[in-house]
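Hi R.,

As promised on Friday, here is the backbone we talked about, encoded as structure tokens. Could you run it through your design pipeline when you get a chance and send me back a sequence?
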């Protein structure tokens, strides 16, 4: 069989992670021939195509080599890896993506008191994540039964098929609507980029590395601010020390003002009013903080 030359990324078709995943790829300069309701999107700007699928199918598609990368919740990846100790060299979390934060949590009826894991002994816990749940139960020395369901976990206690549940909690609205409350966190989750442990050879390998570099740079850009200011020359060192993230500022002279400088620096992380006020007290003026659009070191 001829080696596949185009890189293929699996993304959730509908659901919480779909749109932010595709927005992130757009920021990396990827454009696709739109076909929202279809399975496949052809990459027009690079030889990278999208497969729109159910999130639960994403780890398997990568494991089988159908896709090279996937955007998926850490919860889905974790459950898959526990369930499929792979012969294919395995999957791994390449990086956390900073969106889709949620928790896999044990939830109990609102009227119950939570006194700790020991009270779960002998209970039936409905979940779509039985392996992750069982791992947590073992770590907490609890003997209980995981009732594996494929969906609608939150109604299991009312139907009598379980005593409580272990499910994803994001805003908490689903629990609230089902008279349940969060008791213990089994896993902190967010969207992650998943790949096979071995990087493909040839053209696909090059594309994969290029995309990872762009993802890195998009992430850095999001957390970066360009700070511009003017100051007396003799205050420059102190002001540079007040810039968050210890950047290397560029300092230039201002025409006709030999004792004044202009400074600019790309700061990583949060630049807040306290930082600006401290720099102003040290002599800075005309302070500007700007978002960064693109960055290539
Ligand atoms: C999760 C979970 C709950 C809901 C919780 O489903 O199964 O139904 O989100 O969110 P909330 O706390 O904001 O109400 P998800 O959207 O991840 O879909 P899936 O598990 O069916 O893929
Ligand atoms: Zn799902």
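Update: got your reply. Pasting your designed sequence below so it's all in one thread:
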């Amino acid at each position: 069989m001829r080696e596949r030359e185009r890189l293929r990324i699996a993304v959730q078709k509908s659901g919480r992670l779909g749109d932010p995943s595709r927005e992130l790829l757009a920021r990396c300069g990827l454009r696709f021939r739109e076909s929202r309701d279809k399975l496949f999107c052809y990459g027009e700007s690079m030889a990278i195509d999208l497969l729109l699928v159910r999130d639960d199918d994403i780890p398997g598609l990568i494991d089988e080599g159908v896709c090279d990368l996937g955007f998926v919740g850490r919860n889905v990846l974790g459950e898959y890896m526990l369930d499929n100790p792979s012969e294919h060299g395995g999957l791994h979390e390449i990086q956390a993506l900073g969106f889709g934060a949620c928790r896999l949590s044990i939830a109990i009826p609102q009227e119950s008191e939570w006194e700790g894991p020991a009270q779960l002994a002998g209970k039936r816990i409905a979940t779509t994540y039985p392996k992750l749940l069982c791992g947590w139960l073992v770590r907490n020395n609890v003997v209980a039964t995981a009732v594996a369901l494929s969906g609608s976990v939150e109604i299991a206690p009312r139907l009598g098929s379980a005593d409580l549940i272990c499910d994803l909690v994001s805003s908490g609205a689903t629990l609230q609507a089902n008279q349940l409350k969060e008791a213990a966190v089994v896993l902190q989750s967010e969207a992650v980029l998943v790949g096979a442990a071995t990087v493909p050879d040839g053209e696909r390998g090059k594309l994969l590395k290029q995309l990872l570099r762009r993802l890195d740079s998009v992430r850095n850009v999001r957390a970066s601010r360009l700070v511009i200011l003017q100051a007396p020359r003799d205050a420059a060192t102190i002001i540079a020390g007040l810039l968050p993230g210890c950047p290397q500022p560029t300092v230039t002279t201002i025409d006709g003002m030999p004792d004044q400088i202009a400074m600019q620096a790309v700061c990583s992380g949060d630049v807040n009013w306290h930082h600006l006020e401290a720099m102003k007290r040290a002599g800075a003026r005309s302070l500007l903080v700007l978002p960064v659009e693109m960055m290539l070191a």
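One thing I noticed while checking it: The radius of gyration is 25 Å.

Thanks again,
M.
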